[in-house]
Amino acid sequence: MDPLLIARLQFATTTSFHFLFVLVTLGLVTLLVYLQTAWFITRKPVYERLTRFWGTLYVINYVLGIATGVVLEFQFGLNWSGLSRYVGNVFGAPLAMETLVAFFLESTFLGMWIFGWHRLRRGVHLALLWGVALTAYASAFWVLVANSWLQNPVGYEIRDGVAHLTDFTALLGNPMLGFALGHVVAAAVLTGGMLMSAVSAWHLIRRTNDYALFRTSLRIGLVTTVLGITFVMGFGFTQFAPLSQVQPIKYGDAAAGQDQIAEWTARFGPGDYQPPTLAAASLGFMILIGFTLAWSYLLLPLLWRDWIIRLRFPLYLILLALPLPFIAAILGWLAREVGRQPWAVYGLLPVSDAVSPIDAEVLLASYLGFTLLLGALAVANWTLLVRHAGRGAADPALGRPPTAQPADDRPEPALV
Question: Is there a contact between 136 and 106 (Cβ–Cβ < 8 Å)?
Fold first, then answer.
């Protein structure tokens, strides 16, 4: 067994699981901000009920997603000590900002938002949700800053065999950052829109009592989906310009990268510096899914006079399309990360030098154990999401007045 292969598989598995949680978290909090802001401005009960319903799903996903992020952070020091030792002074800076500034603030704001219903003034309570959203976006920003540095190391110098940060602003101006951040955020918004559309479509298919409520959320979700796919494709294709300059051989353009290969051969010796074909294949399938999701444009006219509900078959199409944003996100991550191979830090640190000197048996046991744990968290997450989504928005626990009884516990009205 190859320890390097096992370490890479473990990191890929952990990141994939965590990324799925992040997509839902970032997408739903964006929609929650819209819903609660609309409730604050219009005072319409429909927006309050939608905020409570979707807020419940958001909290479930957030709580279970935290564990996957903690496991991911630990791997840098445990499985990739070579990476931490050589470039930790640079790579660790944005990750520390993500943990200290973004994650802790986000969790604090979220806790106050959850327990602040009916205890805080409406404006303060709304401001807390805005704080949750802004810090969630800040978290995504700092993670992408760190990842973009792995893709294109800038603003550093090597002293005593260790990389040291010399220009923090260079990290923020990294050409691999801007469009990638927009692409990831748009993918999360797209995922949130698809999730809202699919859950709403399910309730409309079942003809639940809250027809008007889920009719509203279907419209919001579908418009969000259309906006999301528009920006996903826009930011996705604009990434190719900086990518062709920084990593010209990433997707098979070997002719443009001959100078890079010659430099690497002189510094690190002969080797296979061509990225695996999996990167290009993943990119191709991701683009195919993107064009497939573009059918959502055709559904917008069907919102007129509720034809999308009357015809019913578009609702089934929305349900069938729900997995596509998640699959596309994983394929996009594979295209970005596998395309960096054989480098842990592009052109600076080979992945073989980044792995920790751990026996393959220990790594395999760790990989299997954490994969089972992450799989259990994912199953628990989706089980709870499906259960609470299926119950509808009659009386979610989130935002229930402290003196009110749950709907199931309230006594039946007396018959006269």
Answer: yes
Using the predicted structure, report yes or no on whether residue 280 has a pLDDT greater than 90: no
The answer as to whether 243 is a domain residue is yes
**Quick check: bond before 342 cis, omega within 30?**
yes
Nearest-angstrom CA–CA distance, 205 and 199: 10
- Cα three-residue angle 44-50-51, rounded to 5 degrees: 95
Phi-psi domain of 347 (left: phi exceeds 0; alpha: psi -120 through 50; beta: other): left
d(CA 116, CA 127): 11
Does some domain include residue 415? no
Query: What is the CB neighbour count within 10 angstroms for residue 304?
Result: 8
SS3 state of residue 156: strand
The boundaries of the domain holding residue 305 are: 3-156+165-400
List CB contacts of 178: < 8 A, sequence separation 6 or more.
none
CA distances from 325 to 38, 62, 112, 405 (A): 27, 19, 31, 38
Residue 405 within any structural domain of the chain: no
Least trusted range by pLDDT, from 191-205, 226-240, 308-322, 394-408: 394-408
Single-letter amino acid, residue 170: A
Mean pLDDT (the chain, rounded): 89
CA distance 335 to 180: 12
Q: Which of 177, 145, 131, 144 is nearest to 29 (CA)?
A: 131
Classified as helix, coil or strand, 276 is coil
- Per DSSP, the residues of 25-82 read HHHHHHHHHHHHHHHHHH--HHHHHHHHHHHHHHHHHHHHHHHHHHHHHHHHHHT-HH
Characterize 90-118 residue by residue with b for buried, 16 or more Cβ atoms within 10 angstroms of its Cβ, and e for exposed: bbbbbbebbeeebbebbeebbebbbebbe
Number of domains in the chain: 1
Length of the chain, please?
416
Whether residue 43 has pLDDT greater than 90? yes
On whether residue 83 sits in a domain, the answer given is yes
Sorted by sequence, the CB contacts under 8 Å of residue 235 that are 6+ apart come out as 179, 180, 182, 183, 186
How far is the CA of 352 from the CAs of 3, 113, 154, 168, 192, in angstroms? 10, 45, 21, 27, 37
DSSP calls for 301-360:
GGGGGGHHHHH-HHHHHHHHHTHHHHHHHHHHHHHHHHTTTTEEETTTEEHHHHS----H
Listed in sequence order, the residues at least 6 apart from 16 whose beta carbon sits closer than 8 Å to its beta carbon are 330, 333
Q: What angle do CA 236, 239, 240 make, to 5 degrees?
A: 110
